[in-house]
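Retro notes - structure team

What went well: the batch runner handled both jobs without manual restarts.
What didn't: labels got mixed up in the shared folder, which is why I'm recording both outputs here explicitly, each with its sequence directly above its tokens.

Job 1
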Amino acid sequence: VEHVDGGKHFVVTIGPVPLPAGLGGQSCQVMILVPKTFPTAAIDMFYLPTSVTGASEAFKKRANRIETHGGKQWRRVSWHRTTPWRPGAETLSSYLAFVREGLKRIA
């Protein structure tokens, strides 16, 4: 795990995280923007290296933006929670489980 102060957020890089077959089947770093007020504030979306590509419609719809954070370009994955954020109960580990589920669903 690495982190860089990105102003309102910490730029946190985790990995390597295994990728499903539909996203290349290898592994990569995953980046998340963690609000400085975490765990009170929710984490929203996650980011993959720009080299990660997918052919599914879900991938094309949810991972179609490139953004720069921490001096690197990342592919933003628009994947949002459908349940309320639980301040104090949610952790980086629980968010990483959410990311892994998101990867499966966009593969």
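Job 2
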Amino acid sequence: GFTHVKDGYKRGFGKTPVFKKGNKYKTGSITFVQELLKIGGYDIGTAGENKDGIDDDFGGSLEKAIIKFQKDNNIPDNGIIDKKTINLLYTKHGKEWLEMYKKEKNK
């Protein structure tokens, strides 16, 4: 299921915080990153309500997916969602995310 906060990019990352494994954010920001990675074909595990890896929790599966994305894109592979990582994720998959969001919103 595709669920996310309205205008997630601006709301979740306007100030571009740094997100790390183990921290409990529950703001929708981690969900947004999970959705972007999933759109990009990255394995984010099977946690969450729909067993699709989307659970707004920064665990080990998400960290592995972030590291793989970072390596694939030649940016520092530290497993942390920093400004460079989120900006690149959004640049690569944000358009698709917005299309999916609009479809879900109009259901």
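One thing worth noting from job 2: The helical segments are 8-13, 29-39, 60-72, 83-105.
We'll revisit the folder naming next retro.
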